[in-house]
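Supplementary Methods, section 5.1.

A reviewer requested that the exact input to the structure prediction be made available. We therefore reproduce it here, unchanged from the version used in the analyses.
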Amino acid sequence: MTLTACAINCSLAPSDSRESSTDVMIGVLRDAFAEHDVRVADSIRIADHNVKPGVTSDEGEGDDWPKIRERILAADILVFGTPIWLGQASSVAKRVLERMDAFLSETDDAGRMPSYGKVAVAAIVGNEDGAHWATSQLFQALNDTGWTIPAVAACYWVGEAMGSTDFKDLDQQPEKVTQTASMVASNAAHLAGLLKRAPYPG
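The structure derived from this sequence is encoded token-by-token as follows.
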């Protein structure tokens, strides 16, 4: 069974501004997913697009969310990448979650949201503590909007408090990050395969 994944990067900065540690972490998961024959498409840098504020799937002229939404829902797995700012998931990540609120009113005849049967995992980086809090924010909102969260669903790295080292600048990838990425990918691929074969009945 072929499984696909869509990755989004909720960095505050657009691609032409600076290299992203969030993309580096997404890359760690991309390599881990490849071991399970899951192809993770090139990440969508949300800050490169005009994702308007709101809670519908189309906020009108100039809104780039409808095309992004289509790409996300075409995949079996969502890799949700965000940096930590002020101890929380980024404001860009929160905007994405707010736009997914529309799923609650887009159910099929069995009451299933468009995200039903799809799996979500997180890729989180930051230079302060906050990975667990950011994960709890993401997973609660994603579960509310129909995504399924597997066991061990977040791969994260946080640097020393008050420090200045970014994940992208590390000389060597920490072994624990590699091990966790492997478990995240294995569990997500397994669960996505089960749900693809036997969708939720609603």
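The chain has one domain: 3-197. These observations are discussed further in the main text.
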